Amino acid sequence: MPEPRYTHGHHETVLRSHTWRTAENSAGYLLPHLRSGMSLLDVGCGPGTITIDLARRLAPGRTVGIDPSVAVLERARTAASDAGVQVSFLTGEVYALDLPAGSFDVVHAHQVLQHLPDPVGALRAMRRLCAPGGIVAARDADYAGMFWYPRLPELDRWMALYQQIARGNAAEPDAARHLLAWAHAAGFADVAVTSSVWYYASPADREWWGGMWADRILQSALADQAMQRGLATSAELQAISAAWREWAADPDGYFAIVNGEILCRA
Fold first, then answer.
1. Which of 252, 239, 242, 245 is nearest to 210 (CA)?
2. Which residues, in sequence order, are bridge partners of residue 65?
3. Alpha-carbon distance 21 to 53, whole Å?
4. Which long-range contacts (C-beta less than 8 Å, at least 24 apart) are formed by 89-92?
5. What pTM did the predictor assign?
6. pLDDT tens digit string along 134-152?
7. CA 67, CA 15: separation in Å to the nearest integer?
8. Measured distance CA(194)–CA(144) in Å, rounded
9. Cβ contacts of residue 216 below 8 Å, gap of 6+?
């Protein structure tokens, strides 16, 4: 199996979007199933904003976040300390966690499976760590399902380029449509499927989303991979960046991200 590679990397332009995420805007499908005292493992927790929100709801239950990035976990620890919320953050990959089987009532992953070379194996590993009768929860976007207006050709190029880079990393950028199949392949029989949409249309949202991507396509690991693999020139990336700013400035601009969600009973 290829080594997992996070396509976006952890540049500030990436963390800018990750730290926007909360339990409400990113794990709403899971919240009705949580109660105080439950234990939860957050796989691929990143800077920990969702993890911390979930920990507030589960206290005094145990909440653990894992991520392969040491630097981003330091940021998560600081955020938890500043919020006065108890969370344990551990460095690790979902495929090889040295944790006892059945350790958690809930095992959660947000926007993680799309980046892994073996998402079915990851779900199996998550199931192992989940207590009998517990919940394995996952939410992932579907890049091919994203849509926007106006339909600028440079943003079509952005989409094609992202798909090419992600698939070159043995990842599946259109993960949402695969979640149910992956859950079944991992051995789950009781799977509830839902979907929800992030959308950006207000002036503030367009400025934030478009500005973030205008910077990310030039400065992040995604830009590095595009250049190093010969998939795009600097001029092309500059044109994509300019198109994101053009989209953000358009009062009619709209961007939607369809997310698939699964709740799997262990």
1. 245
2. 42, 89
3. 10
4. 89/45, 89/48, 89/51, 89/64, 89/65, 90/64, 90/65, 90/66, 91/66, 91/67, 92/66, 92/67, 92/68
5. 0.96
6. 999 999 999 999 999 999 9
7. 14
8. 18
9. 8, 11, 13, 14, 222, 223
